Amino acid sequence: MTEIQTGQMTWRPPGSSESALHLRHKASEAWRSYKEFPQYALPDAPGFSEGYATFLALLKKNWQLL
Fold first, then answer.
1. Which end of the chain is more exposed for a tag (fewer CB within 10 A), N or C?
2. Do the beta carbons of residue 23 and residue 40 sit within 8 Å?
3. C-alpha–C-alpha distance, residues 47 and 60, integer Å
């Protein structure tokens, strides 16, 4: 059984003008686009922010929003 780790999420990493979901497992890691995490990335519904479906799913799994 694969255990889903918890981590941190942000919509705009420091120094970035891109507003899309970014993830990391630990505070010591660099922010990466949610698309670089195929084990978590979910398809987005039309008209929603890039990464919104993934954000909701991870929020339910106790990921932290920063």
1. N
2. yes
3. 22
Nearest to 50 by CA among 24, 28, 23: 23
Q: Find the largest Cα–Cα distance for the chain.
A: 38
Look up residue 65 and give its two tokens.
Answer: 């929003």
The pTM of this model reads 0.86
What is the torsional sign of CA 36, 39, 45, 51? Answer: negative
Rounded to whole angstroms, the Cα distance separating 31 from 43 reads 20
Give pLDDT tens digits along the chain (66 positions).
455 589 999 999 888 887 899 999 999 999 999 999 999 999 999 999 899 999 999 999 999 999
Task: Return the beta strands (E) in the chain as ranges.
Answer: 8-10, 22-24, 32-33, 64-65
